From TrEMBL:
Record protein name field: Membrane protein
Taxonomy, superkingdom: Bacteria
Entry keyword annotation includes Repeat: no
Keywords assigned: Membrane, Transmembrane, Transmembrane helix
Transmembrane segments: 6-24, 31-52, 58-78, 154-175, 187-204, 216-232
């Protein structure tokens, strides 16, 4: 259990660190767009080389596809709720936070289950998580701050997301004996589905509006780095 607590905290910490970094300085829109584009590319690699591939290996296509559909629908509904309740001036900040939560919970559930079954955690995998989560939280926190949300509230939001995601690792560790590979594959698919909708609807358009022609290059670089790290792990 101690190992699950440690790795859960390590995997979730970049979410809070990114919010703090957004508060320490004013990020120029172009730089913020490049960071978001880089993070989008890293998340694409995570979907392709970790969530999708691992789900197929665990239980085949059916649980994975069901999970993808459930994750996509859940994010879509949650995002509509956030949009109705939040000010439009917050930009993509709210949707990015929702995406991080809906991705982080199932992803770290799978991490906890893997730890309970004796699988190791590679340094490359941890770096890949940082590469994808850090730009996501920086971009969201910066947008929320620019939209007028108070610093304490932004920090509290991302601290809450990080804590919930870390607790998911512990929950996965505790549930490992009660769930099978179908559940793990479905959880990976859920994270992938939520991320795909978030990327298309929020993260990539926000990056494009800020970084313009630099977005594509930043996205490819993020994809290449995260894909390399995933393959190395």
């Amino acid at each position: 259990m101690g190992e699950a607590i440690l790795w859960g905290a390590v995997a979730a910490a970049p979410l809070l660190v990114g919010a703090v970094l957004a508060m320490l300085r004013k990020w120029p829109p172009r730089l913020l767009g490049i960071v978001l584009g880089f993070g989008a590319g890293a998340l694409m690699a995570s979907i392709a080389f970790e969530l999708w591939e691992e789900g197929l290996d665990l239980a085949g296509p059916i649980p994975l596809v069901v999970g993808v559909a459930a994750g996509a629908l859940t994010y879509y509904v949650a995002d509509r709720i956030v949009e109705r309740r939040a000010s439009a001036s917050h930009g993509a900040g709210g949707p990015l936070a929702v995406g991080a939560l809906l991705d982080g919970i199932p992803e770290q559930l799978v991490l906890g289950i893997g730890l309970a079954s004796g699988e190791g955690v590679s340094v490359a995998l941890v770096i890949a998580i940082v590469v994808s989560n850090l730009p996501e939280s920086i971009g969201s926190a910066a947008d929320l701050l620019d939209g007028g949300m108070k610093r304490a509230r932004v920090l509290g939001l991302w601290a809450g997301v990080a804590v919930v995601c870390a607790l998911a690792t512990i929950a996965g560790f505790a549930l490992a004996d009660a769930v099978g590979p179908e559940f793990q594959a479905g959880a990976s698919g859920f994270a992938a589905g939520a991320l795909l909708v978030m990327l298309v609807d929020s993260m990539v358009p926000d990056a494009q509006s800020k970084a313009k022609e630099s977005t594509g290059l930043a996205t490819v670089l993020g994809f290449a780095l995260a894909a390399g790290l995933s393959l190395a792990s």
